[in-house]
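Justification of resources, computational component.

The compute hours requested in this renewal are based largely on the per-chain cost of generating structure records like the one below. Each record pairs the submitted sequence with a full structure-token output. That output is archived, and it is also reused by downstream analysis tasks.
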Amino acid sequence: MRVPGAEELFRPTQPETEPVPEPEEAPVEHPGRRASSGRVKHEEKMTVYISAEELMDLDHARLDLRRVLGAAVDRGRVVREAVAIALADLDDRGPDSDLVRRLSRS
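The structure output for this chain reads:
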């Protein structure tokens, strides 16, 4: 009795097709030299801990943006845009930036 080999057992059942890439959007320009990376595959990961209230606020903002834009925007995209805006403001206004002002209070 012949036992099938791994190539026969684990062969593709459908013809291989190339995956459809997600549409890439051009980086969005903000004041100064900063732009968010937009909607592309990201290689780096950062974990940020936030309160339940902050997460709820982020989800509400995401849903508000969905209503305004008519398209789904994920949390990561909102956060990347917010970071780009904050860093552009820091580049432009330095010690007078909103980021410095807010961090100085804490």
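The first helix runs from residue 6 to 9. The chain has a mean pLDDT of 82.
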